[in-house]
């Protein structure tokens, strides 16, 4: 004899165990509705500022590709562009400049064009090339060492050069004893002389000892570098103005993006 059991009867004979359904109780965003304001205000880029940025960008590019008497002049400009956070506008130009400098080193021509014995310039060249993936030997720093394999004591009077070497040393790889020694040497002596330097240089040294370029976040480092760069008597005014305007435009763009994310994430509309 066969029979069928209805769903209701089966459920009464074998009741399903009760489960405790937990409701989501996520913590509210730490930002609250802060970024929603940008959506309500319909943040838009000022066309006049965009035009100004475009004109300044052309001027910076013209300066960047111009022929210079000394390679160090071009290096310092490239470094400033990178540290001010606008190198993404000139990636091709910067790559070409560094490629040419690397070729000159390979062909042993760089020293023919310029007395390249200054620690600051050698360290800056080393850092920029390594940052962009070009090979350059740490033996370039051997000329600054004595017969005992230690950095010369005379370098202690060159705080700017030591700072440049300190930043370069952070791009060392395993087995580069010269750069290991350089990091110890520069760290020790920069800490010792920091309080005797000019306010601007002292600020750079203090910041670098806490946060070397290699370990910094580009946008935060750019914001910090604005005040440092503008105090340099030889700074490029066009570049500085361009970098500040570009920073502000990007900031508005990021604020708008955060506003959109906040709304999509369940914020107020």
TrEMBL record:
GO biological-process terms attached to the record: terpenoid biosynthetic process
Pfam family, one: Terpene_synth
GO MF, one example: terpene synthase activity
Cofactor: Mg(2+)
Spans annotated as Disordered: 1-24
Gene3D superfamilies in UniProt: Farnesyl Diphosphate Synthase, Terpene synthase, N-terminal domain
Domain of life: Eukaryota
Biased composition, class Polar residues, residue ranges: 1-14
Start and end residues of each Terpene synthase N-terminal domain: 30-209
PANTHER family tied to this protein: (-)-GERMACRENE D SYNTHASE, OS04G0344100 PROTEIN-RELATED
Official protein name in the record: Terpene synthase N-terminal domain-containing protein
Organism, as annotated: Carpinus fangiana
């Amino acid at each position: 004899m066969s029979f069928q059991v209805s769903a209701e009867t089966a459920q009464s004979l074998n009741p399903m165990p009760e489960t405790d359904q937990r409701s989501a109780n996520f913590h509210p965003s730490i930002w609250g509705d802060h970024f929603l304001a940008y959506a309500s205000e319909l943040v838009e880029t000022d066309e006049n500022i965009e035009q100004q940025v475009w004109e300044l960008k052309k001027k910076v590019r013209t300066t960047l590709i111009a022929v210079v008497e000394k390679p160090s002049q071009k290096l310092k400009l490239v470094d400033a562009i990178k540290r001010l956070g606008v190198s993404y506008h000139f990636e091709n130009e910067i790559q070409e400049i560094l490629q040419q400098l690397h070729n000159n080193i390979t062909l042993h021509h760089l020293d023919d064009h310029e007395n390249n014995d200054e620690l600051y310039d050698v360290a800056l060249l080393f850092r920029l090339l390594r940052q962009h993936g070009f090979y350059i030997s740490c033996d370039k720093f051997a000329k600054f060492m004595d017969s005992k394999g230690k950095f010369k004591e005379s370098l202690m009077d060159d705080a700017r050069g030591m700072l440049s070497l300190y930043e370069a040393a952070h791009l060392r790889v395993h087995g580069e004893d010269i750069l290991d020694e350089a990091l110890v040497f520069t760290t020790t002596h920069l800490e010792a002389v920091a309080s005797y330097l000019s306010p601007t240089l002292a600020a750079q040294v203090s910041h670098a000892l806490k946060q070397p370029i290699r370990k910094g976040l580009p946008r935060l480092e750019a914001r910090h570098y604005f005040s440092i760069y503008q105090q340099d008597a030889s700074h490029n005014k066009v570049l500085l103005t361009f970098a500040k305007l570009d920073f502000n435009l990007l900031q508005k763009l990021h604020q708008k993006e955060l506003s959109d994310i906040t709304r999509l994430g369940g914020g107020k509309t």
